[in-house]
Amino acid sequence: MQASTPDYATTTASTEGQPTVHDVFEPRTGTWQYVVADPATLKAVIIDPVLDFDLATQVISTTTADALLSLVKEKGYHVSMILETHAHADHLTAASYLRYRLGTGSDGFKPLVVAGQRIREMQEAIGEKYGVPGEEYINVFDKLFGDDETFQIGQLTAMAIHLPGHTPDHLGYKIGDNVFCGDSLFNADLGTARCDFPGGSARDLFKSGRKLLSMPDHFKIWTGHDYPSAERGSPVPYMTIRDHRAQNKHLHDGITEDEFVTMREERDANLPAPRLFHQSLQVNIRTGQLPKPNEDGSRMLHLPLKLSGEKW
Q1: Is-annotated flag, keyword Transport (predicted)?
Q2: Which of 37, 135, 190, 193 could bond to 166 as cystine, CB 3.0-4.6 Å?
Q3: CATH topology of domain 8-284
Q4: What's the pTM value of the predicted model, to 2 decimals?
């Protein structure tokens, strides 16, 4: 089944020093992708792009990523980086595909695929768990940000912020008065992300949430996912710090660290694994590059089996 082409909305820079933000929702995995641009220079970054994967057929396609390419072309942007917030466990990243498609110009430039420096730990742990050859994930990122490292998007200065909790390698990206927080905070009626993935920590997530909510009230927090209820209807890409502090069901003002940790751990204990958990982790530590083909040309991923009842 082919993915539908996603729509996008645009938040135009209102003052100097602020970016133009295009939010693009991918409904099959509930993922928000972002194209963030400097309106003065048209330099841009793409955050957390999605590669389509059909679990029933095992077919990978690029409809969603191609829509991002169309947006970039329509706006005349020059994409300098593709930013990952973490090693996602619920969708495959389109970073390598986009790097290839955006790097075919005559100048030979290819956008950098970037994550946080702690993703090395995730790559090693996931690579060992699934038997991924080291040469397929070691040094595949073009750059790894340190905590609070700044970088340029045209004339805009951005910062990589360490936000552990959902995963230990998790980053947010502060660009102007906006923070792209990945899977840290969700819309207020959903609260926060799960913390039961390898290296996750509810206590760390509470501290990361407080770090975010200590920023100025007018800052916008752009989330990595949304799963809207029937009552709410449409997915929501951002809320202000002020609104999160008043309305976020898990982290509103007055919630203590111990209350949050107890709630989060109890909820996580009953959550099923994401549908694309095994596939996502193995592909994403490779920056979206596919496994090398075997002798008959097939590209293989490993899936763990569980036995029910007595051992054979």
Answers
A1: no
A2: 193
A3: Metallo-beta-lactamase; Chain A (3.60.15)
A4: 0.94
